[in-house]
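Morning!

As promised:
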Amino acid sequence: KAGVTQTPRYLIKTRGQQVTLSCSPISGHRSVSWYQQTPGQGLQFLFEYFSETQRNKGNFPGRFSGRQFSNSRSEMNVSTLELGDSALYLCASSSGLADSYEQYFGPGTRLTVT
Amino acid sequence: GQSLEQPSEVTAVEGAIVQINCTYQTSGFYGLSWYQQHDGGAPTFLSYNALDGLEETGRFSSFLSRSDSYGYLLLQELQMKDSASYFCAVRMEDTDKLIFGTGTRLQVFP
């Protein structure tokens, strides 16, 4: 079964711009979570979507938003980019069921803000 | 707050055994997971402890003690390919959020 895919893999943007990242989960998975990974802060939870609804949200400013489509594909958007938003953005899919504990990560999108 | 602390770096030689600890200051979580991440790669799931005790999966074992607020990942018969970062993680019962530890970089030398 195909794994989690993320596009694009690399992105360079300028401060003030906005960016949209895409994630396609494993077929049959209904939950998609997004994480920001930086050397200083480690893996930080952004939000989780399940069946097109945001089920959980981390402690990030409102510039970070996301959505999920009926086919479970998810997008996250960052508006008014700041230098500190440079990071690896990872998405992970899971079944989303109460007893599920394993998350399957995509390769990530490396965002560089200049 | 919720935090999971890990040593930042561990080094070992091929064939050795290494233990990566995860101490936490949180309660009310479903279980403790471990993930491996090679440089430039995505985290991959290694193991899960729902209950206290030891779980063994091949060369890797994971342990959880809720009463002592800690867990560990034990890697045996180390191989060069085990050089990677290792993260512990818990899913909180109240928020259902997955919280990751600070991560441990393991370097295996020949």
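The mean pLDDT of chain B is 92.

Hope this helps with the figure draft.
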